[in-house]
Amino acid sequence: MSQTVPGGSRTARHAARPSHPVVPYSPGLDGVRAIAVLAVLAYHLDLGWAAGGFLGVEVFFTLSGFLITQLLVAELYRRGRVDVATFVRARARRLLPALVVAVVGILVAFRVVAPESGPDLREHAVFSLLYLQNWHLLLAGVPYGEPSPLLHLWSLSVEAQLYLVWPVVFVGLLAFLRPRTAAVVTLAAGVLSAVVLAARFDPDGGGLAYYATDGRASGFLVGAALALVWRPEAWSHRRSPLARNAVDAYGAAALVVLLGELVVASEFDAGLYGSGGFLRTGLLTAVVIAAATRTGGPIAGLLGNRVLTAVGTRSYGLYLYHWPVFVLFRDVGWAPLPRDLAALGVTVLVTELSYRCLELPVRRGGIRSLAARLGYGRPEMVVVSAAGIAVVAAVVVAGTAPAVAGAAPAPPAPVASPPPSASSSPSPSSPSASPGPGTSSSLPSRTGDPVLVVGDSIVLGNADALLAVLPPGSSVDGKVGRQFAAAPSVVGSWAAVEPGPVVVVLGANGTVEPSDVDAVLEVTGSRHVVFVGVEVPRRWSEPNDELLRATAARSDRVAYVDWPGIVGSEPGLLGPDGVHPGPRGAELLVEAISGSLDRR
Known about the structure:
It is an enzyme of class 2 (transferase). The chain is mainly alpha-helical and 600 residues long. The chain has helices at 10-15, 27-44, 56-79, 84-113, 118-129, 133-140, 154-176, 179-200, 218-229, 232-238, 241-264, 270-274, 277-292, 298-303, 306-313, 315-330, 336-363, 366-374, 380-397, 457-460, 463-469, 487-495, 514-524, 541-554, 563-569, 583-596; strands spanning 2-4, 81-83, 452-455, 475-478, 502-505, 529-532, 558-561. Helix 24 links the parallel strand 6 and strand 7. Helix 3 (56-79) runs parallel beside helix 9 and helix 11 packs across helix 13.
């Protein structure tokens, strides 16, 4: 499919001028890539100083929008048209081979070390290869942070979907609008994307908005808008020194702020979703990109140094391989530092092999040569055939058991849950909703005032067992992905009509703020309150637990359930995800919650 800008239009005459015939290589952009991927790696290692490292993905989105639009602009200026089909095939030849190898390698590795993960991996693999992983995760209610070795490929799906749509939109815009006007429209579309994300986001466990393409397109569109108007060669040589210095100064300031965000931003900050936080990151990245592409500028020199460019040229492989390697090393019983260093070492080794043996040969025409040897007339058929084989391998290698979305216990994710009621129980369609074998308790049913248990998927998966031992009329209000910030509202609604005690089982999904803990105590009045300790393999686990423990120590009406101590007392109480209790763990959790109601 080829699209041509109408030759008689004023815009077409402007676009046809050969003022931008090629896309020059900018080492500084490899430095931007390096910052993004290093931030993601640090974040996935749960390093405390990289709490905002997840924003590295937004940096990638913005950079992708800029580079892809640069290519489209160059083709339009050079040929007067954009061949969308050829453009998409070129992107597939560049990106798909490494993805196929990564997915098949992950399937084989986990088939050996964790064969029970086969059905889930098969589903993730197929959707990853189809570049639909983000929508699969969203619709299946799979949370970000689940220890699936293919979870991180959601971002590649977002980019691929934008690669398909944007060239058509791009040509349509420039058919009727001047580049500067098209840039304004594109930027407005980025703002609209941020508005869509804000409207869809539910602060009470609504993080799945994180995956949706339309809500995550803001950074990509910001980068695209920049490419429509930014001419690095003009600013590098022909602009006045004052203008060049201004670009460098703004770029330096934006880089400092961006690095600060990568350190201090919180994925649990509702403002990130509701107040354009991702859009802000995209705008900062765009300013850094402008400075990084101004040849001879200090920011371009800083970001284009040899170390950062080496990392940046390998950023695709680092992103592909780091997460499955990190997941493999999670269960290794080593101290954190040697475990993390080993995981990084393996990641770098695999990435380098992929870069030298696969990515570089592909860039140098290896697929074209292979197609000729195999008798394929078109190189992209090799890629399509390999992808098809990989899809079949995903089904065969990962096992033949039917995959059920959300059947295995998963870390919390936002899906609908039942409102508090006298007979509240988990929705059968929710992940981890059904109690596993052995979760029933032999404890006698309690008497007295009804009890409210408010929590996340840990509570949701054990609702029946809890209701079996709590007094009649009790309510279990569990919602997958729920944050502690939702507790004051839920507890307040209960306390307005019921006099009974309250049990809070929250803090596994993100940081707990002291103000939210105080708000729970305020709305409960003089009622007995129980806080259940936090035990999850994430960086916020220990601080959250310390806060809840300290709160209980300060008040006679507050009890604390030492869930971390219970988990540490007996191996195997938690399931494979290190979050949800197994059968024996569920029994002990229900017993501990029931017993805590006596501590008044």
